[in-house]
Amino acid sequence: MNLKEMNQPIAVAQLKKMYLNDRVSHAYVLDGPRGSGKKELALFFAQLLKCEDVVEGEPCGVCSSCRRIEEGNHPNVSYVVPDGQYIKKEQIEQLMHQMTRKGYEAGRKIYMIEEAHRLHPSAANALLKFLEEPEGSVTALLLTDSYHSMLATIQSRCQRVMLARPDRRSYMERLMTTYELTESLASTVSQLTFDEEEAVELSQDASFLLKRHLAWQFVTKFEQAAEEAVLFLQQEWANEVKSKEDLATVLSLILYIYRDMVTVKVGNDTILTYPDEKKSLEKYAFRLTYEQLSVRLDAILEARRKVESNMNRTLLMEQLVFNMQEG
Question: Do both 49 and 120 map to the same domain?
């Protein structure tokens, strides 16, 4: 595992210190933006815990354990990823069975759960029981880019390791230079992910480009009049935003637009999510009070937390319009 390429010295040092001091916890949450190196950090720590020849807090990378973890076929290291929109209860039950049965090899068992914020409530409750009463020498590594979407009870039973946010300007430069993205599009996708492959896929995805447009349209309609926003939701929105993932993406973009208004209002020199709309952002920002902007941001965050419920998507957005007016 190349620590220099991972570029997460603080998180790496934190995990190495716990290992060297023999204070390895039974569960960790690796929390960082998409593309920040969570998976690489998890594999590094798994290698460190299983390595046969650790030197100064670093796995050797060449022993049988290190190589098998790198290749994804170590019998004592298990992986869980979402099956569709969620990580399902059945997946967690199967994982717990693997963790409690006699292993093919002696020693610590490790499991990694990617996108842990997408645990279905029933799956999260099943995992919680195991976290409360871990059996034997087992270490959990939960990976997420949405820490606050996880159950508070799961958060409280895990040690949080925060990954640094990569430098956005240099990342945008790579997207524009290497992949020929426009500055406007690079600005938008760099808010959503630091994974270059995923960013390029988004920039070429007609569905994402439409959602990007819908987010801006919602904001402009709302700032004209709440009634305009409701009409927009009923006539255009419902036909295009068809899934929870679609809704989560659009709400994130709306959130970033209002955050940009705050930074414009205070005069910060920052990268805007929609740089080609800077004049409109300035117009809205200076017309709105800080209290109004705060109410809008709180309402959007609350709506985003409700996305995983079974609430009708259009109704959720209409409720958002109402809540955003309270300021």
Answer: yes
